[in-house]
Amino acid sequence: MSFELLYFAWVREAIGRDGETVDPPAEVADVAGLIAWLAARGGGYAEALAEPARLRAAIDQVFVPLDAPIAGAREIAIFPPVTGG
Amino acid sequence: MIEVRVQVEPFEPGAELARLEALAPGAVASFTGLVRGDDGLVAMELEHYPAMTQAALERVVAEAMARWPLSGVIVIHRHGRLVPGDRIVFVGTASSHRAAALDGCAFLIDWLKTKAPFWKRELLGDGSARWVEARVHDDEAAARWEDPTP
Q: Looking at domain A3-79, which of 3.40.50.2300, 3.10.20.30, 3.30.413.10, 3.90.226.10 is its CATH number?
């Protein structure tokens, strides 16, 4: 199951790209699992994703908790807590 | 009238207030957020999630409209590079009731700070840059409007 990944703010900077298409293995079931799978790539991924507590996510442009299932997602974004306003 | 704008261009609060007043609502309230110039800040860059931002702001506005009798809401949020003194965000509300206009406005700015996908990066005079950390205070300000029922 492939989908688009998007990165924002310091997550984007550390990973060094603003997005990519991924096709994780079936055992990657939720956002937290996806973050762990990406972090295992090492390098900027490990740096950006080392502390899941500092990360937030959206599936198909709606905020979700990190235990949200990713089945059926078309676009998943990973980013720091928002700081607008 | 409901209007949500995400834009690079500056905006004029006076012009937006006049449009809310034209609704003849009885009461208009507003909030304008500006870039501060303290801590050696020379510029601020606002990044956002273009595919999501407009819809996220519209959801916050819909929640405000459901809670208070508002006849008009204008929300404007800028992105891109801003300098101290620049306006970042505008929230304006119109209602026949003073409390609805004031509370609706306060709710909108508190909620959009925690529910709209923007990230601020500060550029300092010594050439360094830092991402602004989310503040616990902002979460607390947003939480005071949470529905107590599960």
A: 3.10.20.30
Which chain A residues are closer than 8 Å to B88 by Cβ? 85
For the stretch B73-116, pLDDT in tens is: 999 999 999 999 999 999 999 999 999 999 999 999 999 999 99
Closest CA to B145 of B100, B95, B108: B108
Burial code (b: 16+ CB inside 10 Å, e: under 16) for B96-120 equals eeeebbbbbbbbbbbbbbbbbbbbb
Secondary structure (DSSP) of B18-80: HHHHTT--SEEEEEEEE----TTEEEEEEEE-HHHHHHHHHHHHHHHHHHS-EEEEEEEEE-E
ipTM above 0.85, yes or no: yes
Chain B: nearest CA to A10, how far in angstroms? 7
Mark yes or no for CB contact B132/A83 under 8 Å. Answer: yes
Domains of chain B: 2-143 (3.90.1170.40)
Set of chain B residues whose Cβ sits within 8 Å of the Cβ of A18? none
